[in-house]
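Researcher: Please predict.
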Amino acid sequence: MLELIKDKYKTISIVGMAKNSGKTVALNHLISEAMESRFPLGITSIGRDGETIDIVTETEKPSIFVEEGTFLATSTKMLDFSDANIEILKVTEYRTPLGEIIIGRVKDGGYVQIAGPQLLSEVKEVADTMLSLGAKAVIIDGALDRLSQAAPTISEATILSTGAVLSRDMNKVIEETLHTVNTLSLPPIEDEGIREMARQIIENNEIAVIDEENKVEIIPIKTALNAGCIIGDHIRDNSKYLILPGSLVKGTLEDLIHSTRKYKNIEIIIKDGTKIFVESKDWLRFMRQGVKVKVLDKINLIAITVNPYSPKGYYFQPREFLSKMKSYVSHIPVMDLMLGSE
């Protein structure tokens, strides 16, 4: 797994589709390979990780073990729950309910708990600091409900963890995973001029339509939520792009489709695939109806890890689950890290 990132990417996010999907196993696997290769990693988290019992689901979790030379960005209170000897290199100005965020280096190996910054800008800052202090790469531990850490402005590459915890139905798990892969991998807008125009509109938090002559019409509304019909009224025969700065949700698309047939002539541009909040069946229906969505920045999804076991007591046959997932997701490495195969 380390070979997927070594000498290729400096910041890598690991995101789970749900709790207990195998994200911490993936993190530990990377840490272990890095130790063997004497490849110093930096680690931080959006949220909290490393506790032996999940504080939300009250299920057992794998602990995080680090050895000498690993860099950490975590909160001061988490140091009390770690038995590794950590040298504090920097106390940052960032505050969380679990204390100040510190950057440290492991002097003697042990188990750690990690709770990093709460804002994405702070995550990027502490990642850059760990890199400047000697980390060869930084792993950002996250979750699907905080998927924004997978955005290209934060991490150069993303690993997605999925598993049986999503559903007792293997086909449902595969369907949901494939939907997430497809939305995260949406193609970027190719026209450089349009991309820069769209980026400026999105940075200004504006909603706009761009026509065939590259003329911009700003729609005077603050959000696209519950405003699909208003947006539809601004789409003309010569409209080519619709720029949306926030989330793309089912209601907006349904209202847009019902308000005008001209939606088929435009491409909707959003910042990146983390902004889509549409369920898989609805998404497929919108695609069949001719909705086209592109992004400013494509997310670089480099691997998928699968966990065939659910904490609720059921499980899939590991090799069958891995084989079936690989048959549907053939363009990205899919692996069960406990099987030791890819």
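Model: The first helix runs from residue 23 to 36.
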